[in-house]
Design a protein that fits this description.
By secondary structure, the protein is of the alpha+beta class. Helix content is 15%, strand content 34%. The longest helix has 17 residues.
């Protein structure tokens, strides 16, 4: 670990309101300017390599009923600091992370009210993070946010990779357009059929927002350490190209209940003229607090299979045990109900998955549909939907626990709430105790549909606190959490490393609904994954769902692109999502999924352009093995793989899984070729990628 440098320059600077304060990133390429403008309003601007990136942009809040918390300020004093230290994640794309920044903390006081507000800026070599801090003060104790007036004044028309701002979902397809075109496209984008939608009333887009200027500057805007605060989307002034904070309200219109002595999340910008540096940035995770879990030995990356995809194929498998929908949890006796014969989570079938996991080196089996309540899972209209401690009659908890243990395989619990969150919280401790008593140490949570309590949205302050409550409670039981339909991540996996993955975006399951576009997974690393790992559930080999009878969907990828996703879509929780029968049909391609690691020593971004292509190499944790994944959009291309990440002077064997010569995502997607060759670190491979395709490489040292 590098010796860290921590130094402070603390002084009291009584400055005139218009005097600017400037400081730079450690490498000097980013410069931030802070001023108090006319009327006492705080503003900041940002430059990169002597070019303006963010023009003068306002800071602050308005609070209810109609008080200004963004004007009439003067600077009381300013503190400066620098920090440089390495830290070791519990899991991650790299075994060590450098946290190096310069800091400016501005203490403001409002001249008429005496209210205080601090703004803490941190400049890293690859971007900016800033947050508001609300000091404990006699003049102000509690307040309700009416609006956050933070803005990002871009000043020009960037190309944007965006989804509509929505308080209940992050599952829209990504649109690509100029900022000036968003208003023409957003109504069509919002028409996507989703389980719950609550669109922003203003013209707004979600974070993380990826932007690219005509002269090749990349900016990613997001937030870090979202704790006890509503999630932020971005209102767009498309004439002046100004983005402004749009906090998720509750249904009364309140955007946050604040007690002084607390802080806001960090507002973040990752900035570079090289798209690869956006993907390699640790800025968001570095702005989170260190782990609050002292003993993390029980937290382990997982490769798993599961009783899941069969529910989406159209083949007839169901989550529900019975067709009787007149269900009352705690009163209905399921042993008296006739089974429907299509229930997937039955003991015999789960044993088949346990056997397959054991035979092929998988850690765990996810089982959805094991518990009572699926017959009548009415969102928003029904409060007590499921039991989280009582299994269906055909799912023998104790027998499966013993069977899985004998095979050295874990079973992953599933807690779908259908967004009856109040009832889930009532049952949470009982549900987690049930898990521990029966050998489960990981849970997939789900929040499909509108939220109960009925005044709340998925991304509001109340729900943000709920997700954290679940993770903190799970930690007490030594349980890892994979949350679906939750607020998008903001790097909190550093603070709570048992929060091992999230969905919180449009995942593979949508391939069985209205579909994903071929460029979808070339964009997600630049948007959704900026905040943390995604449970994308790749590995679908049979992309034509019409073979199952009742679904005409077709995947937007080739088979080998599905392999590449295990590298390009980083997660310590990776699923082989297809049916067992399809892996048995293609055992040679399946070998890559069996081999690929889920925890890493190092990651190397080799090629990257949002919406077009991504090529990434990673070194397996504590092994002399490397894996490469490359994906493209609907256009074919030739990828260039620079092997200089390999140790010099050694020989390796590379197994290459690539698209067949006539392959494409919509014609012949299952055509692939597998070859082996010796490679060295001084070589560069040029590999053709089919439309909507990709390739994967497994590299092992030769003895």
């Amino acid at each position: 670990m590098k010796k860290y440098i921590l130094c402070f320059w603390i002084g009291i600077l009584f400055v005139v309101n218009t005097q600017a304060q400037t400081f730079s990133s450690p490498n000097g390429q980013l410069k931030l300017n802070f001023t108090i403008e006319e009327g006492g309003s705080p503003y900041y601007s940002l430059g990169y390599k002597d070019k303006s990136v963010i023009k003068n942009s306002k800071l602050g809040f308005t609070i209810k009923p109609s008080y200004s918390y963004d004007s009439e300020f003067k600077v009381e004093n300013i503190d400066y600091a620098s920090f440089n230290k390495n830290w070791t994640p519990v899991w991650g794309p790299n075994k060590e992370v450098n946290n190096h920044y310069n800091e400016m903390l501005v203490h403001l006081v409002q001249q008429k009210t005496g209210w205080k507000l601090d703004v803490r800026f941190r400049l890293f070599d690859d971007g900016l993070g800033f947050r508001y801090e609300f000091p404990i003060q006699s003049e102000l104790r509690h307040f309700t946010i009416n609006n956050e007036t933070t803005s990002f004044n871009l000043g020009k028309d960037y190309k944007a990779f965006w989804i509509p701002a929505d308080y209940d979902t992050n599952e829209f397809p990504v649109s690509t357009s100029q900022l000036s075109e968003v208003s023409k496209l957003i109504d069509h984008a919002r028409k996507e059929s989703l389980a719950a939608k609550a669109p922003s009333k203003s013209l707004a887009v979600q974070t993380p927002l990826m932007l690219k200027s005509q002269d090749g500057l990349y900016i990613n805007i997001h937030e870090a350490a979202l704790v006890n605060f509503p999630a932020m989307s971005l209102t767009l002034d498309e004439k002046n190209f100004i983005l402004s904070s749009n906090l998720t309200p509750d249904k009364n219109g309140d955007r946050g209940f604040i007690q002084t002595g607390s802080v806001s999340p960090w507002r973040t910008m990752i900035i570079s003229d090289d798209a690869r540096k956006i993907l390699s940035s640790n800025l968001v995770v570095n702005l989170n607090e260190p782990s609050k879990i002292e003993d993390t030995s029980w937290i382990k990356p997982i490769k798993y299979i599961g009783v899941w995809w069969e529910y989406f194929t159209g083949g007839g498998s169901t989550w529900a045990y019975s067709n009787n929908q007149d269900i009352r949890i705690g009163k209905t006796d399921y042993t008296t109900l006739p089974p429907n014969g299509t229930h997937g989570a039955n003991t015999k079938h789960v044993k088949e998955y346990i056997d397959f996991a054991a035979e092929n080196g998988f850690d765990a089996v996810l089982v959805e549909g094991w518990n009572e309540g699926w017959e009548d899972n009415q969102a928003y209209r029904k409060e007590h939907i499921y039991s989280f401690t009582k299994a269906y009659p055909d799912f023998d908890v104790k027998e499966l626990q013993a069977y899985a243990k004998s095979k050295n395989v874990k079973i992953i619990m599933h807690h779908e709430t259908t967004s009856s969150v109040v009832d889930y919280e009532r049952q949470l401790n009982d549900g987690f105790k049930f898990m521990k008593d029966n050998g489960y140490d990981a849970v997939k949570t789900g929040y499909v549909g509108p939220i109960i309590p009925r005044s709340e949205y998925h991304d509001g302050q109340w729900m943000v606190n709920h997700y954290q409550y679940v993770v903190e409670t799970a930690a007490r039981y030594h349980i890892m959490v994979n949350s679906h339909e939750a607020v998008r991540p903001t790097g909190l996996y550093r603070t709570f490393p048992n929060w091992i993955a999230q969905e919180s975006a449009r995942g593979t399951e949508f391939e069985s609904f209205s579909g994903n576009k071929p460029d979808h997974t070339t964009i997600l690393p630049f948007t959704r994954l900026i905040g943390g790992p995604m449970d994308y559930t790749p590995g679908i080999f049979e992309g034509d769902l019409s073979v199952y009878g009742n679904n005409k969907a077709q995947l937007s990828t080739t088979l080998t692109k599905q392999l590449a996703l295990y590298i390009t879509m980083y997660s310590p929780l990776q699923m082989a999502a297809d049916l067992i029968e399809n892996y048995k049909k293609y055992p040679d391609a399946f070998q890559f999924i069996k081999d690929v690691a889920v925890d890493w020593d190092s990651s190397y971004i080799l090629e990257a352009e949002p919406g077009d292509y991504v090529t990434i190499a990673r070194k397996a944790k504590n092994k002399k093995e490397w894996f490469v994944g490359s994906i493209t959009d609907e256009n074919p291309r030739e990828a260039i793989v620079d092997l200089s990440f390999l140790p010099k002077g050694e020989k390796f064997e590379a197994t290459l899984y690539k698209d067949g010569k006539q392959a494409s995502w919509n014609h012949n997607p299952k055509s692939y070729e597998i070859s082996k060759q010796q490679v060295k670190s001084n070589q560069t491979l040029k590999i053709k990628v089919a439309p909507g395709g990709g390739f994967a490489i497994s590299i092992k040292a030769l003895k």
